[in-house]
């Protein structure tokens, strides 16, 4: 069953840096158009994160790191003595772009650490660029490792169901939950892949289906309202999702609809896997109720592709994420190991294991 994890198909890259600029694949236009936008300042990068040009927890973090690179470049170019103040302002702007994915704050903290010992803006620029490039490469490597670890949990012959987009588009590359699915598919462990369309933003329909087909993996799309009927059929062995933030007790924030899927999975005896790099675990947030949940515009619910689908005067309610309690999760799969039946103690053990290596 072994597959060389470095040779699995994974051809999409949403984030690219070159010629002093950041290039982001505009995910709002997919699957109809593949177009890269060019960014030369941190304000533009913060707006790109807020407006969903780039989305997905790890991808947001890496993008913000490159936003800091651009801020350092601008500070070096300005020749001003208060370059640290300029960069701090940009970091604050990037941090305000989206509240839930902890990878954003993790990446910005990491960049702050790197800059702390830099004597000049020029050196800060060089060090920030090296760190952002390293972060991007490390994310892809971590995803390949956690993909292989998650695949090992999947007994051959069943289908899987996933939610939102957790693939190359949502990360530096390869993906988290989709990384597990890529690995398991390549090993012949998965009979069929089902993907929720993921209302209201349609990450499943527009992005996951596009990405899987792009890399040669067939997919069946369903409205998430059909998930209960699918799980009752008994063909699905695992529901596999990503995470935007995992609290210290294992409660997990992910795309709205994930909690409902976890309840359905438990009811139907289907196992539930969360796949995420350790940078998504927030040990400073004790439990799920402490995770800030982003509210997005009502128009995302009331409209579809810019056209109203509800009568004038209807109000929308649009939380972007929900929290799945740890007791509904069978495994959290990370690049540093699998935590079965996650709870506070088992996550601390994971952290201590990493620290002692
Ligand atoms: O609003 P989005 O598209 O940024 O939400 C993305 C998700 O909820 C993903 O499942 C999560 O970030 C994990 S991505 C590897």
UniProtKB/TrEMBL annotation:
Record's catalysed reaction(s): 5-(methylsulfanyl)-alpha-D-ribose 1-phosphate = 5-(methylsulfanyl)-D-ribulose 1-phosphate; 5-deoxy-alpha-D-ribose 1-phosphate = 5-deoxy-D-ribulose 1-phosphate
Residues carrying the site annotation Transition state stabilizer: 164
Listed EC numbers: 5.3.1.23
Catalytic residue list: 244 (proton donor)
Chain positions recorded as substrate binding sites: 55-57, 98, 203, 254-255
A GO molecular-function descriptor: S-methyl-5-thioribose-1-phosphate isomerase activity
Primary enzyme class: isomerase
Highest taxon listed in the record's lineage: Bacteria
One Pfam family, short name: IF-2B
Keyword match Isomerase: yes
Known pathway: Amino-acid biosynthesis; L-methionine biosynthesis via salvage pathway; L-methionine from S-methyl-5-thio-alpha-D-ribose 1-phosphate: step 1/6
InterPro entries per record: IF-2B-related, IF-M1Pi, IF_2B-like_C, Initiation_fac_2B_a/b/d, M1Pi_N, NagB/RpiA_transferase-like
Gene Ontology terms: biological process: L-methionine salvage from methylthioadenosine
SUPFAM superfamilies xrefs: NagB/RpiA/CoA transferase-like (SSF100950)
Function of the molecule: Catalyzes the interconversion of methylthioribose-1-phosphate (MTR-1-P) into methylthioribulose-1-phosphate (MTRu-1-P). Also catalyzes the interconversion of 5-deoxyribose 1-phosphate and 5-deoxyribulose 1-phosphate. Part of a bifunctional DHAP-shunt salvage pathway for SAM by-products.
Family in the record: Belongs to the EIF-2B alpha/beta/delta subunits family. MtnA subfamily.
Protein name: Methylthioribose-1-phosphate isomerase
